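Protein Record: Sequence and Backbone Structure Tokens
======================================================
Scope: a single protein chain, as residues and as a discrete description of its fold.
Tokens: labelled as protein backbone structure tokens, with as many entries as the chain has residues.
Position: the record begins directly beneath this header, with no further notes in between.
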Amino acid sequence: MTLLVAPESRIYKEYIRRLERVNDETVPETEHYLRCAELDAWIKGVRHGAGQDLFFNGDYYYLDKAAAGEIHERPMCCGVFLDWEYKGDAE
């Protein structure tokens, strides 16, 4: 049985923190892919520790931000932007 992780939970907030790091377009491509691998490993570790399949819904997080006008809608899978592109340093 898959359980949806509640958005108000501490574990979901940590997931979002890590997801936002993955989608950060100010880091080079190698760092982006490292962060993707770290997020994947973290999710697997949380699921293993919980002893059950947990579902983190990153898509809804970003769709809510788009609906609020905070970002533009983008193609994504599990909250990871499929059109991620290095844009250079934010400074």
